[in-house]
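Q: What structure does this chain adopt?
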Amino acid sequence: MEQTNFNDPGIYSSSNSPRRWKVFLFLCALTVVGYGFFALGGVSNYVGIENPTWWQKIGNIFSSTVAEVDKNNPEDDLNAQFPLPKKEGDRVDILIMGIRGADDPDGGLLTDTMMLLSFDKKTKKVAVVSLPRDIYTEMPTMSKGKINEIYERGLAQKSSLDFTKKVFSRLTGVNVDNIIIFDFQSFKGIIDTLGGVDVTLAKPFEEKTQWGYEFSLPAGQNHLDGEKALYYVRSRYSSNDFDRARRQQEVLLAIKTKVLALGLFKNPIQIASLVSQLKKNITTDLDILDTKKMLDLASAMNAAPLTTKTLSTDNLLMQTIQNGIYILLPKDNDWGPFRIFFQNILTS
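A:
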């Protein structure tokens, strides 16, 4: 599917129906919901199939290892270890990824926000799962490294969205239907357009060094503008990625509450402002002007509670050091339970 061009003025013309504006508004809310794990990134490391030299080819003719090489074909290994899942008729899975921004020289294309939003069209259940950036995977012929490098690797191959969807489909065991890529400028802008959001803290929060000054929030209710919300969900020096995921979900639920309280589906002025914030900072393969599933999903999120879960060392992951680098792996290095978790997220 072709990427949506948000700079095309035709998609914002007055001839579009209110129904289409509602679809775009939902995309705005969905984008904000997806913001989370922004932090320092790693290094890209693409692994492809190596071409044997001519003398290796000749040697193979006389070698008994020819059958072994065929048996261990990287494509066969890929399909055996990370099979590509089939599309489920009543389920929609959308991968939401956040980047600092292409102009940021310090890992601006590394996707340190990674969430899978799953929606069952029949039961109307909606769930969002946060994936930590340090999850490490080795997929023959596709990728080797932390999962926050995958989008950047796809860009290098000029197939960023399709490549990323395929890798995450194989990783999670569910078919990724669509993908949304956004940067933190859109996050701040949308929060400010909403008039800020409210979060209630059980205890004070402090981040003393990450932002060049002491950022703190007191216990109790706090009203966050775009910058404060960004600092709150990005701060990690005083805690860790798992706690950051918990804070991210606090803001996520606060956004949903604010959107519903404002009745934004009936407010064309704020819709236009949100559209202005998003159109330069989003890449997606969603056809936001003619997608019934987005309307269904917006309706479900409006009516039903949103289930949020985070992968951590308390459930499916274990932490280790590999070549001096901190990484996360599935417990017992078994991807089976990892994939089953995603496959059952809407039924468990």
